[in-house]
Here is the input.
Amino acid sequence: MAFSAIFLLLIAMLSIQSGAAIAKQLFPMVGSMGVTLLRTSLAAAILLGIWRPWPLLKSLPRLKRLALYGSALGLMNLLFYLALERIPLGVAVALEFTGPLAVALFSSRQLLDFVWALLAALGIVMILPLTAVSTELDLLGALFALAAGGFWALYIVFGKKAGEGTHGGPTAAVGMLFAALVTFPFGVVDAGAKLLHWQVLPLGLAVAIFSSALPYSLEMVSLKRIPIKTFGILMSLEPMVAALAGAVFLKELLTTLQLVAIASIVVASLGSALTARTQAIDIF
Here is the structure.
């Protein structure tokens, strides 16, 4: 049972990064903000059709919490794709991953967590174009990725509050609806009628399925079968999976320094998950 759950989680990570690779190939057609709109709107339609979360829309206090959760989700995706337009996939995911890592570290506050925080900070410094050996990376893209990580942290915090007392599926569906509403004006202004082109919609649907609908569903199934600590440990591998997907699908070969920096962030996340005393917050 646990092995099958771990397998599903690995498939979910591969699915997310494959979806990101498809999204990057769509950027020349509709831009990063247009792709964000396609991902959130089509994923919302899929998740709403699966979960039919209409009872959640009847409570105004819960709706406010869901709006905050979904807005953070939408802005996280928007900033991540803006970053992905400028920097390699593996680097973007590693920098974005500092968001959930920060939440885990702040929620634990053990002395050992300072070690993991310093290791993650070292990885960030090695990636950012602050020295002569790392100047080739686009600084704006890196800052977009870090900002996406900040909204990922807010997404976790708001998601925990929005999901209290209800199943994760309906919560994710309504959250994605609000994410689509937030990203709608950006996508329309950026891409306009190009979003309706016959070549764009199938690829947009693939991004929505592989980046959102499929992995979110697989992760929810996995969370029911394995301890949350195991879930956190496995999720820590995501930057490495992203680097692999970038190399295979996008031919993005990272420098040795970038790989070391990503490894530093991964080790920090793994260390945090392995030594955590408090229960981690669900992320996907």
Q: What stands out?
A: Confidence is low (pLDDT under 50) at residues 278-284.
